[in-house]
Amino acid sequence: MAAQINPSILSADFARLADEAKAVDGADWLHVDVMDNHFVPNLTLGVPVVESLARATDTPLDCHLMIEAPDRWAPQYVEAGASSVTFHVEAAAAPVRLAREIRAKGARASMALKPATPIEPYEDLLPELDMLLIMTVEPGFGGQAFLDIMLPKIRRTRELISKHGLELWLQVDGGVSASTIERCAEAGADVFVAGSAVYGADDPAEAVRALRAQAEAVTEHASWACDH
User: Which residues does a divalent metal cation bind (predicted)?
Assistant: First the structure.
């Protein structure tokens, strides 16, 4: 099972987004953080920028919507060119309906959980998803320190995915770096969002390759992957 690295443009130079997208050639996805200054205390970008970015890169876009009313807005991000759209369960009015609508429009449907949101109440929703995102920092700002207390939650989520025999990707976002990615992989994550660890490096593309190699080396021997 290959590890996937999704560089976060939240840590990129917003004045040079097309160039910054090219700087991570070889990345599996480009992670796009959409924030509305309501659900989280920060404001980033919206549909027009996603449309422009989709035209500027061949790397598929992984849009993470940290916004209120995702039921209304998420489908527009698929139409703008996103290949995967993540909504927060804390903000969604009808998460199953929303996931089905995202899928029906041709994108992968993903659901995110903030650090304090448990996974267990949403076990029955997992078959409706293509990916689940466990936030390993409080959403809203890049550059935060990784929360180790999220590792047991990652493990419990991987156990639920295995229990139901699902081909569900498990993504982590927040503080992922060379010093934390192996712990995340061992716990069960297989998709890794990395911002400053990639865009803060001298060679972002090489940083992507190095992080993927670290994660895959752990995944190869992880108990959850061997049982998969």
Answer: 31, 33, 64, 173
